[in-house]
Amino acid sequence: MPNQLQGKAEQTRRTFIATAAIAATLVIGLAQSSASARPEGTKLPPDLAQAWKDYNQATMRKDVAKLSSLVTDDYMLVNSDSSVQDKTSYLADFRVPGFTLDPYEIEQPLQKMWGNTALTGGLFNLGWTQDGRHQSRRLRIAHVWSKKDGRWRIAYTQLTRVPE
Q1: Of 1, 53, 108, 145, whose Cβ has the fewest other Cβ atoms within 10 Å?
Q2: Would you give the DSSP letter of residue 22?
């Protein structure tokens, strides 16, 4: 019983940290450049649009080197089962033998800008094969991007399962 309680406490702590990280990133981005915020409905700047495209392609190709360059060192992923992964753990998943991802397309794209901070995401069908077993689920995804030293990188990703 103590191990189960400790596990839940650790999961709650990680979720809290993830929430704090996304809030801090958004607040910093808003504070840095509210004057340069893009009106709702405008397109992403070309360098961010390309980075988002590169990220999606690298994900489907399991290009760990490219993915590593597109996420920050303190990257955090909150999975649809509420588990939390850091950059090392996230990238390790792509190296698992026999793991493949199906191609996907982002529906209902979400694009928001606040200076050097952006939010991208949407709805998609994630399909994958692992240990010879194919699985799939419909998810909403949200990425928090940060531009530093002239490069856009993902600092945080949240996946939410869409009920069937």
Answers
A1: 1
A2: H
Comparing C-alpha atoms, which of 68, 93, 59, 78 is closest to residue 21? 78
* Residue pair 140/114 in contact by the 8 Å Cβ criterion: no
**pTM for the model:** 0.74
The two tokens of residue 121 are 């995401």
CB distance 50 to 152 below 8 Å: no
Question: Please, which pLDDT band fits residue 17 given cuts at 50, 70 and 90?
Answer: very low
Q: How many residues does this entry show for the chain?
A: 164
Per-residue confidence at 43, pLDDT binned at 50, 70, 90?
A: confident
Structurally, the chain folds into a number of domains equal to 1
Query: Residue 112: which of 23, 31, 18, 30 has the closest Cα?
Result: 30
Q: Which domain holds residue 141?
A: 2-161
Neighbours of 55 (CB within 10 A): 23
Report DSSP state, residue 96.
S
For residue 58, give the CATH number of its domain: 3.10.450.50
